[in-house]
Amino acid sequence: MERQLGFGMTARREPLGADLGRIGERVEQLGYRELWANDGRLGSGLATLAAARGSSRNLDLCVGVVPLSERGPDEIAAEVATLGLPRERLVLGVGTGSGRSLGAVRDAVARLRVLLPGVRLAVSALGPRMCFLGGEVADVVLLNWAFPERIAWARERVAEGAANAGRPTPRVACYVRVAIGDDASDRLAAEIARYRGRPRPYTRLFEEQRVARRGPPGVAVADPREVPRLLAPYRAALDSCIVRALPAGSAVEDWLAVAEAATLPT
């Protein structure tokens, strides 16, 4: 399966101003194959992608993920139609959100297959049961906050689910946080601190990976030239390694600085 590099950004209600489209254009020039945006209370990932794609032509537009506790399949499909997103380029991710039901995810994927034919569907997975379900029903399984060895473990669960359903194994993607600059480590630490207050699946994920002792997964360096080397173990473990930027500021240039660092020659 072809390995790809994706670039991940944060959705906002008023995302970065009128020049947001420069992000999609530039990351495509840099060789990224995917542009990812999260989704939630801070803003719509779908709307962010619609604005950020700019004049890119082949960049996959990936939302990871819409929380089903906040929006159901019919509402999601209606927004896709309203925004006019190209279905052949769209990867639509869903997750439980504040819910816990694997059945809700299974049902949502089935419904979205009917509502949005041709759109690739992703499932957010942290634990073994959701990885298995992703293998059964999804086109992409999206991991989060995972060291390379955790990624390898998750891939086994995904492959088991696909084999159980008699279908090809989905692509496995993961957000890998990347911060550059003098305060890069502080930004990465602050980001994981936000997740420590989230529901039990995240705290269990951190405990199982001994994050309190090892530090968070990801890349945080002062020198941008170090990013490709430190990112390499994640890229080797994934079908889609998503450079989830933790920029120094909110300007488009700050986001693109991270995108450019990850593609520097080694």
Question: How is this structure best described in words?
Answer:
The protein has 266 residues and is of the alpha/beta class. Helices cover 44% and strands 20% of the residues. It has 11 helices and 9 strands. An 8-stranded parallel β-barrel has the order 1-2-3-4-5-6-7-9, surrounded by 8 helices. 46% of the residues are buried. The mean pLDDT is 94.
Concise overview:
This protein has 266 residues and is of the alpha/beta class.
Q: Mind describing the biggest β-sheet?
A: 8 strands, parallel, barrel
Order of helices and strands: EHEHEHEHEHEHEHHHEHEH
Overall outline = globular
Low-confidence stretches: none
How far apart the termini lie comes to 23 Å
Distinctive features:
266 residues, alpha/beta, globular
Topology:
Layout: E1 4-9, H1 21-29, E2 34-37, H2 45-52, E3 60-67, H3 73-83, E4 90-95, H4 102-115, E5 120-124, H5 128-137, E6 140-144, H6 148-165, E7 171-180, H7 184-196, H8 200-208, H9 211-214, E8 219-221, H10 227-237, E9 240-245, H11 252-262
Parallel strand pairs: 1-2, 1-9, 2-3, 3-4, 4-5, 5-6, 6-7, 7-8, 7-9
Helix pairs in contact: 1-11, 4-5, 5-6, 6-10
